[in-house]
Amino acid sequence: MGLFKLLFGSNLPIPKRKDNLSDNRSKNYSELKQKTQELKTQNKKWEEDSRKLISFRNKGSELEKKKQFQEAIKVYLESIKFGEEETNRLHIYTYSHNIERVIILYSKTKQFDLLKEFLKKYIEKYPEYNKIGKWYERLSKLEKKKYWLQ
User: Fold this and answer.
1) Which of 6, 30, 72, 115 could form a disulfide with 63 if both were Cys (CB 3.0 to 4.6 A apart)?
2) What angle do CA 86, 127, 114 make, to 5 degrees?
């Protein structure tokens, strides 16, 4: 005879132990599954944004090869705008190539006033960018050049 039966009699039901461990596992699994699905969705959107940015880059590059510099500048500017405004999943490092191409093409097409304004804007906007020193150097050269031409 068990101690419980001895103390309380045999007519009382034996309390069942609630299995909190399996309840917690089930809850944790559900949460993990939901978070995994959210990450998959975010990753898919990031991939779509990256593909779009790469297509802009390729189109700009093709236009450059055809010496259609103004059209290439427009495409690169559109890609920068997409990276900055239309998606919050991309970082400057994913579209910095396009910023560099605009700088080069403004210089190549001798649009120095636009280049100067462009450089000032992006130096102010991305002070933590690791290649900002090149932008400062270019801006400094532009300002010296303008001073000597006056």
Assistant:
1) 72
2) 70
Q: Which residue has the tokens 């790469």?
A: 54
| Residue 64 to residue 58: CA distance in whole angstroms | 10
Encoded tokens for 6: 């001895």
What would the two tokens of residue 145 be? 């050049």
CA distance 141 to 118: 14
Torsion angle, CA of 67/71/75/78, rounded to 10 degrees?
A: 150
Domain parsing of the chain, residue ranges: 27-149
**CA 127 to CA 34: how far, in whole Å?**
37
**Alpha helices per DSSP H over 82-131:** 92-108, 112-125
pTM above threshold 0.90: no
Residue 115 above 90 pLDDT?
yes
How is domain 27-149 classified at the CATH fold level?
1.25.40
Question: How many Cβ atoms sit within 10 Å of the Cβ of residue 100?
Answer: 14
What pLDDT shows up at residue 17?
A: 59
Reported residue count of the chain is 150
Residue 62's nearest CA partner among 76, 49, 50 is 76
